[in-house]
């Protein structure tokens, strides 16, 4: 049974190839993500992982871990707090913070941290999930 | 110069291969997206495009069209209103709704519509973008 406070986490390093693959899917060819030379001249100083790519780990967690298979994604809000760099480990965590049993709606805190344990993305996810009593 | 009311749009059909590619990136192997047989038994009746994959078109629009190169993505909220199906054309649109020149912050309405002109995703994007006077 799903309970308030329950969490699930997943970690991943995004490679340069991952950024190029995501660019093809999202049509986001912004050179700050893809071009090391260009990125060097930006405030970040190097290539940055697309925020929406890192955030997609929330989709993975919700759809396969918590609540898991059968989850219907209703909403997600995201704040991109700090850049995530290529090949830097990112850990995404979701935590159940509210359950509306009558509507089968679960709200989860969603957060990504970098390998320095700094919060890089923070937000909330809302999903529909049929709970057994 | 960027002005309130300005819009940019982009259309794309997500193929079955795109969904598998996105699953590898996001670790979202939820069979509702990837397995036609499984999806047939769900309320959707067929494979559904990952909401975060379709939403990634906003990243593409912001980073390459409006405001364009140099955009720093600060936040995005998303409501997934209706399913998007494989090979169905989706049109993502962003529209400038607020400009804070003093902080170089732009807020945009972000919306995806399907080929029936139904809103399937709606939300808001917030970006930082250095504007020339």
Written description of the protein model:
- The structure is a homodimer of 133-residue chains.
- Chain A is an alpha+beta fold.
- Chain A has one domain: Hotdog Thioesterase (Thiol Ester Dehydrase, Chain A, Roll), CATH 3.10.129.10.
- Chain A has four helices and five strands; from the N terminus they run βααααββββ.
- Chain A has helices at residues 16-26, 31-34, 36-40, 51-64, and strands at 7-13, 72-80, 89-100, 105-113, 119-128.
- A five-stranded antiparallel beta sheet of chain A has the order 1-3-4-5-2, covered by helices on one side.
- In chain A, a hairpin with a 4-residue loop joins strand 3 and strand 4 (105-113).
- The mean pLDDT of chain A is 94.
- Chain A binds chain B through residues 10, 12, 14, 18, 21-22, 24-33, 42-43, 50-53, 55-61, 63-64, 69-80, 123, and chain B through 10, 12, 14, 18, 21-22, 24-33, 42-43, 50-53, 55-61, 63-64, 69-80, 123.
- Strand 2 of chain A pairs antiparallel with strand 2 of chain B, so a sheet runs across the interface.
């Amino acid at each position: 049974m799903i309970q308030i406070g329950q969490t699930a986490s997943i970690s991943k390093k995004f490679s340069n190839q991952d950024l190029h693959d995501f660019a093809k899917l999202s049509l986001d060819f912004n050179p700050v993500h893809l071009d090391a030379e260009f990125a060097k001249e930006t405030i970040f100083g190097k290539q940055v992982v697309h925020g929406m790519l890192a955030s997609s780990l929330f989709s993975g967690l919700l759809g396969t871990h918590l609540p898991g298979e059968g989850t219907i994604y209703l909403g997600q809000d995201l704040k991109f707090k700090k850049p995530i760099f290529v090949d830097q480990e990112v850990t995404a965590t979701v935590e159940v913070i509210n359950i509306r049993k009558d509507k089968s709606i679960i709200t989860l805190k969603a957060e990504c941290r970098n390998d320095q344990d700094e919060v890089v993305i923070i937000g909330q996810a809302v999903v529909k999930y049929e709970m057994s009593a």
